[in-house]
Fold this sequence. Notes:
Two copies of one chain form a homodimer.
Chain A: H1 8-23, H2 31-37, H3 42-49, H4 52-72, H5 80-97, H6 99-107, H7 118-134, H8 142-161, H9 171-184, H10 200-215, H11 223-237
Helix pairs in contact in A: 1-2, 1-4, 3-4, 5-6, 5-7, 5-8, 5-9, 7-8, 8-9, 10-11
Chain A binds a DNA duplex through helix 3.
Amino acid sequence: MKSTGDPAPKLRLLRAAAALLAESDGASVSTRQITEAAKVTAPTLYHHFGDKEGLFDAVVAEGFAEYLAAERSIPASGQPIEDLRRHWDNHVQFGLDHPQLYLVMFGNIRPERRPSTVATAEAFLEEVLRRAAAASRLVVTPHEAARSILAANIGVTLMLISETAEKRSLELSVMTREAVLSAVATDSEADPVTDTEGTPAVVVAAIALNAALQSSHPDQLSGPELKLFLEWLHRISSRSGS
Amino acid sequence: MKSTGDPAPKLRLLRAAAALLAESDGASVSTRQITEAAKVTAPTLYHHFGDKEGLFDAVVAEGFAEYLAAERSIPASGQPIEDLRRHWDNHVQFGLDHPQLYLVMFGNIRPERRPSTVATAEAFLEEVLRRAAAASRLVVTPHEAARSILAANIGVTLMLISETAEKRSLELSVMTREAVLSAVATDSEADPVTDTEGTPAVVVAAIALNAALQSSHPDQLSGPELKLFLEWLHRISSRSGS
DNA sequence: TAGCACCTATAACGGCGCTATATGAAGTGG
DNA sequence: CCACTTCATATAGCGCCGTTATAGGTGCTA
Lengths: 242, 242
């Protein structure tokens, strides 16, 4: 066996491909760029990966492993719905951290290349949802819930990726997340305010109020008052500190 | 002027490109295939479209025009929410009818190529939502609602496209549609809090935020700030009856 | 008829994914 | 120490791709 671990060129190819993919803003990366960056000649690439697609499959597999590791690192707190929120946010964050990789993983979807990524993510999410179902929090089957949540999660992430970093606002994510979750599960008991430090209910309410104020300006507040009020509202809704 | 309408080669190129794109299951289409199918030589393509990308842009523009025409053909019934459902379903249907075109239009998203498609679709949807807002059915701004709905709509459509036709089930679409819609709008007048005139959404949101703030104080606002904020919040929610 | 846009074709360039073939390095049995 | 096998890397090149410099044809205007 090859117990003497020194697969330098293969690893260099993987790293080079991943780096070039991450840098190239959507443009395609050529095998010549990759082999040159890895200081290797063409046949080496094909010896190890068979194909350009094989190489990128390996890159995607690595990224997907990282994604799954992050997902698995989210512990099962006692509150399944809160767990779902964290998984959603983690998904979005991964997409924003590795946009190019994410596009290959979730945006490119060719009919049957899919299983390795979307299907696995779906299965994992379904597992989390089974815990929610066990806590009698689900209104639909875990399978259906997983598909709906994942679809919306991907849609939101793709939209956020396609926006420039400055215009990007996570309100879209929070809002859509709560929409899908509340349709799929009953959120805890009647008391909407959470007991954890995350306090998403406050954020959601603030966002809703802010949105409502956009379309109808109340006459109870003067102009300057309203301006300051909106600023504070935005401060509240833009992510609770630590 | 070119009043003698006979732009045969340009049209043939467009048609050939569209046909080949629709047939090719995700695989890339070469200019040589296209020019051969259009019975034209290479320079003709570049004379008319400048670029391979320019040609596909034209194809996408045609498909997008068809999409928008279908969207516009949906009349404004008296019920804005029902209209939104129809627009959602039309979006999904277009994606399933022209999967390859749809992937280019909504799945490929390179940072700045986007405007011509997603942004326009978003603007159109926002317009429909403005009608809902005028009927006091919206809980958030039309802009935010449009983004959320469109993101979920795209996510669902991409997921459906990536599935084989037999496993495909529209339950996913209906379920997610209702989830997003019910989070963004109040369906009909079932909600007793909403009276059709005035600005109830603001009041409702203000009350909700106030309730949430009672149990968890955010650290983004200082003590005095929070005090004033709450006072204003109270002023907004206690608006005297019309 | 000459000139002038416009449109199309011939032929080729450089870059791409990929590979037939050869060379080196490392371990094994005689 | 030497064949011999096995794996890993390199040389050189094939055919396809997107693209273009150049030239030829076509029909209108003067």
